[in-house]
Write a structure and sequence with these properties.
The complex is a heterodimer of chains A (about 240) and B (about 250). Chain A has one domain. Chain A has about 240 residues and is mainly α. In chain A, helix 8 packs antiparallel against helix 9. The two termini of chain A are about 30 Å apart. With about 250 residues, chain B is α/β, with parallel strands linked by helices. Chain B has 2 domains: about 140 residues, 3-Layer(aba) Sandwich (Rossmann fold), CATH 3.40.50; about 60 residues, no CATH class. In chain B, strand 1 and strand 2 form a beta hairpin. Classes of the chains: A mainly alpha (about 240), B alpha/beta (about 250). Bound molecules: adenosine-5'-triphosphate and magnesium ion. The site of adenosine-5'-triphosphate has 12 residues of chain B, from helix 1.
């Protein structure tokens, strides 16, 4: 409870006494590259395989001849857009970006680099953390869109190669009964998750105390706390919006 | 001039600083000395505001820093340069970017003016042709020099150094000490150096404050430090054989 309060104060401190706008633009672009672009390969690989695996497993479970085959791709589509792309990718994102952010800020803390910023009269939390949070908010939804697309494409190839579904059936299945709100919902989720992962990891890194050992611990707890927050938020959003 | 009044600080129920007062004059190297763990670094952090003291006040040329509002605090902070124990250079920036950083953030100078100033400061601390090197590629002594250059680049009025020569060989240590003294006199800065190295005490101590278990038990300068009859100070000063030998001969 106490740490939730401290976390809220930390989030508040990001927005007071900021530096010049132009400083932030440059930092945000750098962070977009570090956070978003550098996660692209990992996210693509994971998304493609998740799509492929869901197709094959859904086909395996739908043994009844009464159910038309195109249901497979329909299931893959909804599963991907609603849950796999935004939420599972958020866990992957927490593992890669979260640990990275916590490690970087933790190292800056224990080597007194954050103190050095403070002594210069710079609001170190907004200077270091705000660009990361904004960059995550910009790039993570993009990653989710790419992940959803690749996942459906991965399912397509897996389905055709294993001959569980034909091309026309797959395409028909992903088009039938399409509800646009699922995409809106996925994007809302991705904004929330991006904020949670980047801010929780920053918080964990920023308040590291001690030495190299504690930096490692901060990285680990950044990932575990982010994952718990993602799952909780996932459940709450599903209850509220679906 | 920096004045501290009755600074007290307790960590987890354990008093570290038990009421310390003193005056640090301009244009002189002021030293805070004492054994490891007596709270020197904590006192320095209280002075620059990285730690808030439980009681007491810090005045920068008469301006109360402890109770200052946000704007005054930032105004004073922008006049402070600090050299940290490990250098605290930004890992992701090269030497030049490290030194130019305070100018980028705090001034409206043009690119050329900034570069001129950076090169002047790097030259002043005896570093040339290392502008593009990363902190991980330079030696400990060079890191300290870059740290000093970064601390003075924005025409700081106050310079703080925490153990400027820890981890350096005795010769380099003295070069760094003297560099700090020269810069202090040349630019008329108020300098406070925290150290437990007797070599620097004898070399650059214009004013010396000796801390023992959270109290100031002695103050003076490098010429009268060997003549005091404070037991704790003598134990500290004459801890090594060389100093004991000198004492016998005098
Ligand atoms: N943030 C903190 N929280 C709790 N205790 C602290 C904190 N900072 C320092 N201390 C304690 O204060 C005491 C003094 O520490 P300090 O770092 O000031 O010593 P020092 O005189 O600088 O020693 P050294 O010469 O080894 O650097 C130590 O016992 C330390 O455990
Ligand atoms: Mg210390």
């Amino acid at each position: 409870m106490k740490s939730i309060g401290k976390y809220c104060i930390f989030i508040g401190s990001l927005f007071v006494n900021r530096e010049r706008f132009s400083t932030y633009i440059k930092l945000i672009i750098n962070e977009c590259i570090a956070i978003g672009f550098n996660s692209l390969v990992l996210v693509s690989i994971v998304a493609t395989f998740i799509g492929a695996v869901s197709t094959v497993q859904t086909a395996f479970n739908l043994v009844s001849p009464l159910i038309p085959t195109y249901v497979i791709s329909q299931v893959v589509r909804d599963l991907t857009i609603l849950e796999l792309a935004p939420s599972i990718m958020a866990i992957v994102f927490a593992g890669k970006v979260g640990s990275n952010i916590a490690g970087e800020l933790g190292t800056m803390r224990i080597t007194e680099q954050i103190d050095a910023l403070e002594v210069m009269g710079i609001n170190s939390s907004s200077y270091l953390v705000l660009p990361k949070v904004i960059a995550a908010l910009i790039t993570y939804p993009m990653l989710v869109v790419i992940a959803a697309y690749l996942s459906i494409v991965g399912g397509y190839f897996a389905g055709i190669l294993t001959k569980v579904i034909t091309e026309t059936e797959y395409i028909y299945g992903i088009r039938v009964d399409f509800n646009e709100f699922t995409v809106t919902f996925a994007l809302i989720k991705s904004f929330v998750f991006a904020f949670l992962v980047s801010s929780i990891s920053s918080y964990k890194g920023f308040y590291t105390r001690g030495g190299a050992l504690e930096v490692g611990k901060a990285s680990t707890s950044a990932v575990t706390n982010s994952c718990i927050a993602i799952l909780l938020a996932d459940y709450l959003l599903a209850q509220l919006l679906l | 001039m920096i004045e501290i009044q009755d600074i007290k600080k307790t960590f987890d129920g354990k008093p570290i600083l038990k009421g310390i007062s003193g005056k640090f004059e301009k244009g002189r190297t002021n030293l805070i000395i004492g054994a490891s763990g007596t709270g020197k670094s904590v006192l320095l952090k209280c002075i620059v505001g990285l730690i808030k003291p439980d009681e007491g006040h810090v005045y920068y040329d008469g301006r109360d820093f402890t109770d200052a509002d946000r704007n005054l605090k930032i105004e004073i902070r922008r006049e402070i340069g600090m050299l940290f124990q490990g250098g605290a250079l930004f890992d992701s920036k090269n030497v030049e970017q490290n030194v130019i950083f305070p100018l980028d953030m705090l001034t409206d100078m043009s690119k050329e003016e900034k570069l001129d100033r950076v090169n002047f400061c790097l030259k002043r601390v005896g570093l040339e042709n290392v502008n593009k090197k990363m902190p991980s590629e330079i030696s400990g002594g060079m890191k300290k020099r870059v740290g000093i250059a970064r601390a003075i680049v924005n025409n700081s009025k106050y310079l703080f150094c925490d153990e400027p020569n820890s981890g350096l060989d005795p010769q380099t240590a003295i070069v760094i000490d003297n560099l700090i003294k020269e810069i202090t006199e040349e630019f008329d800065i108020t300098t406070i150096v925290v150290t437990h190295d007797m070599n620097s005490v004898m070399e650059i101590g214009d004013y010396i404050m000796f801390l023992y278990e959270g109290h100031k038990v002695w103050e003076g300068n490098d010429s009268n430090i060997t003549e005091s009859n404070v037991k704790e100070l003598n134990d500290f000063v004459f801890a090594n054989k060389l100093m004991r030998t000198i004492r016998k001969e005098v």
